[in-house]
Amino acid sequence: MGLVTPDYGLLFWALLSFGVLLFILKKYAWKPILQALKNREESIARSMRMAEEARAEIAKLQDESKELMEKARQEREREMAETKALREKLIAEAKEQAKVETQKMLEKARQQIFLEKEAAKQELYNTVAELTISLTEKILRSELKDKDKQQEYIERLLQEMSKN
């Protein structure tokens, strides 16, 4: 029963040893422990601020990244539109140039056909003239073989010339 009902001496020594222990802890350990806790609290607060700043920076970078992506998309679309317009312009110019070249070739072909037609007409005219002269010569030879016919033909020509 001695343990359940302590003695005054035991109580005194227990309180004295607790007080000494408390004094020693307060004198040598309490300030460093409080300082360590304070440092730890400041470190945690600093880490929390840095984490919050990092989150804000990440959000800012994400926004900037989205803006850059949007700008890049717009730039790509603009360049594609410019490329499409340039392609259509080049196609239109090529068509126009082909049309002009075709017209030139057609005009040249028409000119060549006209020149060949004129040459053919001239050749036909010359051939007809040669045939006519040849035929006339043959007819005149056959009709003018006789001297009387020659004399009569010459007189008729002279009369026709004198009338004019």
What is the structure about, briefly put?
Its main location: membrane. InterPro entries: ATP_synth_B-like_membr_sf, ATP_synth_b/b'su_bac/chlpt, ATP_synth_F0_bsu_bac, ATP_synthase_B_chain. This protein has 2 helices and no strands.
Please tell me about this protein's structure:
- The protein is an all-alpha fold.
- The chain has one domain.
- Helices cover 93% and strands 0% of the residues.
- It is built from two helices and no strands.
- The chain is rod-shaped, with a radius of gyration of 65 Å.
Strands, total number? 0
Low-confidence stretches: none
Order of helices and strands: HH
Domains counted in the coordinates: how many? 1
Overall geometry: rod-shaped
Distance between the termini: 187 Å
Largest sheet: none
Q: State the share of residues found in helices, binned by percent.
A: over 70%
Main structural class: mainly alpha
- Strand-residue proportion: under 5%
Number of helices: 2
What average pLDDT do the residues reach?
88
| Rg of Cα set | 65 Å
